[in-house]
Amino acid sequence: MSAVKKRSVSIRGHQTSYSVEDAFHEVLINMARDRNLSLAAIIASVDEARPRDENLSSALRLAALEWVKSGKK
What is the spatial distance between Cα 30 and Cα 12, in angstroms, rounded to a whole number? Predict the structure, then answer.
């Protein structure tokens, strides 16, 4: 598995960062493509739905895992 990489994105008008491995990042890109959304929009939707005590990177990994488990790739 690849090392964790820190990435930046602008969501809802502010810059934020998240850290995920390349494999998770590719799943997030595929999620966005499948839903005809931008990567920033997918990240914003995960950010909005996550519990406030869960960090964004963890929430993104869990969202990617759930998407893959649902049969998507």
Answer: 21
Q: List the one residue out of 3, 11, 1, 7 whose CA is nearest residue 50.
A: 11
Cα–Cα distance between 57 and 55 in angstroms, integer? 6
Q: pLDDT digits over 12-66, tens only? A: 899 999 999 999 999 999 999 999 999 999 999 999 999 989 999 999 999 999 9
Element containing residue 41 per DSSP (H, E): helix 39-49
* Conformation bin of residue 17: beta by default, left when phi > 0, alpha when psi is -120 to 50: beta
* 31 and 73 Cβ atoms separated by less than 8 Å: no
Tell me how far CA of residue 31 lies from CA of 37, 38, 43, 52, 53, in angstroms: 8, 9, 10, 23, 24
